[in-house]
Structure formats: structure tokens, C-alpha cells
């Protein structure tokens, strides 16, 4: 089954996977303050604004994962002291679904050092943001409403690997973040 990009969020870890039929030549790279999805060196040139973006950012005691440019305003709102639910609602509502040929939903999640987690999705017909107590998945296609999901990972490294290895079609790369002490650990699988 092809579900496109997806996030899985639990109170202990958040993961994001790029699955793509159209732009498979991408990878996740670690930068100073973010994990960034971008084209590989051999990728064809494109002016598509949805191919490169920060997919993981941290702000104070909360980390954000997501499938596009909305990750940055969510992190900025968190940095200003917004509660995670409000930061997700504000950014997802403001940016809305992607204006591409598929009306691709924007998906995102947060996990905090205090063990609080949220997941959200905005699509053409709905905006969902909810607190999660168990692993919950939302994807851009087919599974575009948050729902409980079996996901055993508890560290960033195991979460990135588990997300990448899930049996959904066209895996490209994955990233994950987990609270570690009073900060966060991150991991990628390319």
C-alpha cells in the first residue's frame, strides 16, 4: 500500500518517513538545528517547493516532525511558549494543505521531554490535532486521519529504522527524534 509520507508519534518518540513515487532521490541530512530532507547529488533539478524542507526541529523542551515547511512555524511557536497543541493548530491552519496536484495533506507531530505528544493533519476537508497516549500514525494518503498504530521503538535510532522498514511502498528515507535527558537525540536512515 502506498501511503506517501507519514509520521508516527508516541509519548517517547516521533518518527517521519519520506515515501515517494515522484521524487525518490532524496535524503535526510543533519544540520545545526534541524534534520533536513533534500535532493541527493544525482537528483534531477526541480523547482518543486515541496521537495526540500526541515523535517525535524527542536524548540525548548519539544521536538517537531513533519512533511514540509510548516515544521518551522510550529517550532517557532513552541519557542515563543505556545503549548504544542496550539502551535500545531496555528501553523497547520495557516498553511493549509499543500497546493499541489494531489492536495497533499500537511502532517506533523510533537514529543516533549515531559512525555507529552501530539499529532496533527490538515487536508482539504479537515484539520485534526490530538494528544496521543500510544503510538499514532497519520499519512498523506490512505491513512490521513490519526489512528493508533503498532510501533515498538523507544529511541531515535530504533524509530528511524522501524519507520523506514514498515511495509508501506516506496520508502526513501526516515528521521526520528526522542527525548534524551533534558534534550533530544535524533537519527536518520537513508
What is the gist of this entry?
The chain has 190 residues and is of the alpha+beta class.
CATH-defined fold name: Glutamine Phosphoribosylpyrophosphate, subunit 1, domain 1
The CATH class designation is: Alpha Beta
* Alpha plus pi helix count: 3
Number of strands: 13
Class by alpha and beta content: alpha+beta
Summed up, the domain count is 1
Low-confidence blocks of residues: none
Looking across the biggest beta sheet, what order are the strands in? 3-4-5-6-7-8-9
- The CATH homologous superfamily is termed Inosine monophosphate cyclohydrolase-like
Alpha-carbon Rg, integer: 15 Å
Residues in helix, %: 10-25%
In one word, what is the shape?
globular
CATH-scheme architecture:
4-Layer Sandwich
Largest sheet: 7 strands, antiparallel
How would you characterize this protein structure?
- The chain has 3 helices and 13 strands.
- Strands 3-4-5-6-7-8-9 form a 7-stranded antiparallel sheet. A 6-stranded antiparallel sheet has the order 11-10-1-2-12-13, covered by helices on one side.
- Strand 10 and strand 11 form a beta hairpin.
- The chain is of the alpha+beta class.
- It is globular and about 40 Å long.
Amino acid at each position: 500500500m502506498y501511503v506517501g509520507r507519514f509520521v508516527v508519534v508516541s509519548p517517547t518518540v516521533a518518527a517521519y518517513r519520506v515515501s515517494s513515487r515522484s521524487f525518490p532521490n532524496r535524503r535526510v541530512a543533519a544540520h545545526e538545528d534541524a534534520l533536513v530532507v533534500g535532493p541527493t547529488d544525482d537528483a534531477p533539478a526541480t523547482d518543486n517547493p515541496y521537495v526540500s524542507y526541515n523535517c525535524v526541529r527542536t524548540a525548548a523542551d519539544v521536538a517537531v516532525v513533519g512533511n514540509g515547511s510548516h515544521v518551522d512555524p510550529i517550532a517557532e511557536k513552541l519557542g515563543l511558549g505556545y503549548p504544542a497543541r496550539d502551535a500545531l493548530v496555528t501553523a497547520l491552519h495557516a498553511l493549509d494543505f499543500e497546493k499541489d496536484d494531489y492536495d497533499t495533506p500537511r502532517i506533523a507531530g510533537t514529543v516533549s521531554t515531559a512525555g507529552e505528544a501530539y499529532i496533527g493533519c490538515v487536508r482539504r476537508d479537515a484539520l485534526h490535532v490530538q494528544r496521543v497516549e500510544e503510538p499514532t500514525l497519520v499519512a498523506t494518503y490512505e491513512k490521513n486521519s490519526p489512528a493508533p498504530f503498532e510501533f515498538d521503538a523507544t529511541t531515535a535510532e530504533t524509530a528511524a529504522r522501524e519507520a523506514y522498514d514498515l511495509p508501506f511502498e516506496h520508502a526513501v528515507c526516515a528521521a526520528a527524534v526522542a527525548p534524551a535527558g533534558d534534550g533530544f537525540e535524533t537519527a536518520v536512515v537513508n
